Amino acid sequence: MNKPEKPLSTLWGCELNESNKEETFKTDDTNHQHQLALRTMCLGHTAKDEFNIVELVTGEGGDGAKAVPIVTLHAKSMPTVNLSGLDLHPPVTFRLRYGSGPVFVGAEHVALEDYSDEELEDEEMDEEVEEEEDIEESPVKKVKKNGAGKRKKPEKGDDEGEASEGENNPPKKGKGRGRKPLAAKV
Known about the structure:
The chain is flat. The chain is 11% helix and 37% strand. It has one helix and eight strands, in the order ββββββββα. β4 and β5 form a beta hairpin. The strands form two sheets. It has a four-stranded antiparallel β-sheet, with no helix packed on it. Strands 2-7-4-5 form a four-stranded antiparallel β-sheet, with no helix packed on it. By secondary structure, the chain is mostly beta strands.
């Protein structure tokens, strides 16, 4: 079975203004699961000094669909809103409820391959068989323990090649720490 390496991700965006008060994100592709991850909504540079309220309608947009306001933007006090973490499934409709905009919606369209239950079971079986084969192929190695916790003490003869105690070595505890003695005054 071929698994997709990464989900297909593309940028999606729209502009809501006086002439285009509503924009819908929907897909007809049934081979993938689709998700719209909202990122930002911001006012354009020509926005008037007024409140702009954007509402969200999920599902099929009929008369019984309920709209939820998700953003209130104002040119002077809040021109941009970060909406990271708001993930929606299509169809999704954005509607400029109040104001003249322009309001820009920025999002990420993610398409995931839709696996059927049979394909998932087949993949799990294949993975289990591969794991069993890996276990059978690798022999068990015995680990030798060399007295764990015991340290080897250096022998007295090993210190001969090292520098003497005063050279390049920091003073040991209790010796020479602190201030140097003052020289005797003449």
